[in-house]
Write a structure and sequence with these properties.
The complex is a heterodimer of chains A (about 325) and B (about 325). Chain A contains 10 helices and 8 strands. Chain A is α/β, with parallel strands linked by helices and about 325 residues long. Chain A has a single domain, classed as Rossmann fold, CATH 3.40.50. The two termini of chain B are about 30 Å apart. The chains are: A alpha/beta (about 325), B alpha/beta (about 325). Chains A and B meet through β2, α5 and α6 of A and α3, α4 and α5 of B.
Chain lengths: ~325, ~325
């Protein structure tokens, strides 16, 4: 469907443990978000809630090759990356609730998950606004001679912004180690790719910046893994940027306010046949890396962990109103 | 003031340059990035010679990508560096406004206090060089509107020499406004200049009859007006706000409570401006100290025209400060 998918020649080695860990991650993201949607209808979660459902293989595949010291920046559709990065599940759910036990003390909500311990720099909700930040973080790493990769996720909508052009040019000009990951889910809110980009083969945009690029079937975890491995290796070894396009699809509405007038149900159903979790489950079964019993155990484990997270969020507390003006300026440094 | 400390003559431009030099010497994490700061020597020659002295890693020329390089400066600050970002002029600052308002000013808050942004963004600004409507902005109020930013205005040679160094010690983003019309102006600074603080307004001239509250390009104009007023027997106190966010109410109110009259002078368009805010605060905090209504002299509500006489007419001039002060004192 996408054509010209670029795959590396490296053989992918997925053993039982790794395979099941990756499946667990994707299932956890899916289930966590289904639970979030349910909690939204119960008005436990408010504001915007953007679900990643359908796109899980992108985060799981790309992030598998990142190291703890690497920087990660995401969009406002970042629950998946936050979970896979290992931010405490309860702290994420509490953030969605707006409780002060949340990973951003409740100040950010769904769109602004932050965790400096895991080098998770948002949760950024101005489309493409975080691309220059990624370049700056990588520039700081380069100046401080730290061998780190900055991984920056964004949608194809962001690739139409001026900041995409500026950030791509700066990253290549300055030769800084940024992995730009374009999660092309085909719709910028409700406007399809062909109505927003003159050139819809997005990876070719990197040519203008002299930047290596690849595009990959983002519904197929094994394909994402292969492409990400190569891309991250390139960035880490060269210290230069790389542009990776992951072609994927959002099964759910853009946000909880979206009536989905812009696409046919048949199109969504067609993409659901390529569900990354179903595909990867089949892959594991075909390679005898997953038994029914193991799958059941994983499902049960996820249910339990999500329930614990929800309980944690429910038990969380509201920040006192008299603390309203915190976090506007840093606390004065004690002499 | 009035003490016999050694002073030296220096232009505003040279004072700015020396402050950048000091900053780069004092902190190895500091670097300057901006359009034409290196090979060109700075659009206004402020950074002339610094590329040779510090090399291209610390004096970084950037492409015309205001949002991109201001954002990169913010990112580098988050990553542990101390970037000094030069936006050639405030006129191009709006191209980076998203980065400043939506990232620099919000990251600390959105992250629940986890991420602070120690970036300094310098912008040349002001009116008076016949550069017409798109190159003559005095947009300090736009930036001073935003919580999370510290906004400072370099109205004197002393501050040109020292304010940047203080700004670089701040944990949060500082927007630092410099005035291009003052670059060639020679002034006196102390040879053993003291570090300045970024919290207080400063009384530039003591007087008992009226407080002239101003900032930026208004400071020297107001001091000259005060000189003329002194000849007429009027003691004008000149308060340089210096810090436009957060405002130093205490110094302002103390001055107004002493003189009982306030004139606020600025070059920015008068509506919804710094003078609007200061005026409101005086009314809220020391209304009963006033012997006359607060008066304001701000920019005329017009895009800045090219012809010299119209441009001059768009912003407060010394004579108007003098006559407005006299009116305030009913001293015609």
């Amino acid at each position: 469907m996408m054509g010209n998918e670029v795959l590396t020649t490296d053989a992918l080695q997925i053993d039982r443990e790794l395979g099941q860990q990756l499946l667990y991650q994707m299932m956890m993201v899916r289930r966590f978000e289904e639970k979030s949607a349910e909690l939204y209808t119960k008005e436990k979660i408010r504001g915007f809630l953007h679900l990643y459902i359908g796109e899980e293989a992108v985060a799981a595949g790309v992030m598998h090759y990142l190291k703890p010291e690497d920087n990660i920046l995401c969009t406002y559709r970042e629950h998946g990356q936050a979970i896979i990065r290992g931010i405490d599940l309860g702290a994420i759910m509490a953030e969605l609730y707006g409780k002060q036990e949340g990973c951003s003390k409740g100040r950010g909500g769904s769109m602004h998950l932050f965790d400096t311990k895991t080098k998770f720099y948002g949760g950024n909700a101005i489309v493409a606004g975080h691309l220059p930040l990624a370049v700056g973080l990588a520039l700081a790493d380069k100046k401080m001679k730290r061998k780190q990769v900055t991984c920056c996720f964004f949608g194809e909508g962001a690739a139409a912004e001026g900041e995409f052009h500026e950030a791509m040019n700066l990253a290549s000009l300055w030769q800084v180690p940024v992995l730009f990951v374009c999660e092309n889910n085909l719709y910028a809110m409700g406007t399809a790719l062909q109505y927003t980009h003159a050139v819809t083969d997005l990876k070719t945009k990197a040519l203008g910046y002299g930047m290596p690029s690849a595009s990959v079937d983002g519904m197929d975890l094994t394909a994402v893994l292969k492409a990400a491995k190569q891309a991250i290796k390139t960035v880490r070894e060269s210290g230069k940027p790389f542009f990776l396009v992951c072609n994927t699809y959002r099964f759910r509405a853009h946000s909880m306010f979206d009536a989905e007038l812009y696409r046919e149900k048949a199109e969504v159903d067609e993409w659901k046949k390529r569900d990354p979790i179903l595909q990867f489950t089949k892959y594991l079964r075909d390679h005898a890396l997953l038994s029914d019993d193991e799958l059941k155990k994983t499902e049960n484990r996820i249910e339990k962990e999500i329930q614990t997270a929800v309980d944690f969020a429910e038990a969380g507390t509201w920040e006192p109103l008299d603390q309203l003006t915190r976090f506007v300026y840093s606390d004065p440094v004690k002499p | 003031m009035g003490e016999t400390t050694a002073t030296m003559k220096i232009t505003y431009r040279e004072a700015l340059k020396q402050s950048i030099r000091d900053a780069l010497h004092q902190d190895e994490r500091a670097f300057l990035l901006g359009e034409d700061v290196g090979r060109y020597g700075g659009a206004f020659a402020v950074s002339k010679g610094l590329l040779k002295e510090f090399g291209p890693d610390r004096i970084m020329d950037v492409p015309l990508s205001e949002s991109g390089f201001v954002g990169a400066g913010i990112g580098a600050a988050v990553g542990g560096m101390r970037p000094i970002v030069e936006v050639m002029t405030i006129n191009f600052g709006l191209l980076a406004f998203d980065q400043i308002a939506n990232n620099a000013a919000t990251l600390l808050h959105m992250s629940g206090g986890q991420i602070n942004v120690p970036v300094v963004i310098r912008m040349g600004c002001g009116i008076g060089r016949q550069l017409a409507a798109q190159h003559s902005h005095s947009w300090e109020p736009l930036f001073a509107h935003i919580p999370g930013l510290k906004v400072v205005s370099v109205g004197t040679h002393e501050d040109a020499r020292s304010m940047l160094l203080a700004a670089l010690k701040e944990p949060d983003p500082v927007i630092l406004f410099e005035y291009t019309a003052m670059l060639n102006l020679e002034g006196e600074t102390s040879t053993d200049f003291q570090p300045v603080d970024l919290t207080h307004a400063k009384i530039r001239r003591v007087g008992k009859d009226v407080s002239i509250i101003t900032y930026g390009a208004g400071v020297y104009k107001s001091l000259q007006a005060a000189e003329a007023l002194a000849q007429a027997g009027i003691g004008a106190e000149v308060v340089d706000l210096r810090v436009l966010r957060p405002l130093d109410d205490k110094t302002v109110m103390a001055s107004v409570s002493k003189t009982h009259r306030a004139l606020i002078v600025e070059e920015a368009w008068q509506s919804v401006s710094i003078s609007s805010e200061v005026s409101a605060r005086i009314t809220e905090q020391c209304f009963y100290e006033l012997d006359a209504p607060v008066r304001r002299l701000g920019g005329v509500e017009v895009p800045i025209p090219y012809p010299k006489h119209l441009e001059d007419g768009s912003i407060p001039q010394q004579e108007q400060i003098v006559s407005a002060t006299k009116k305030l004192l009913q001293h015609d």
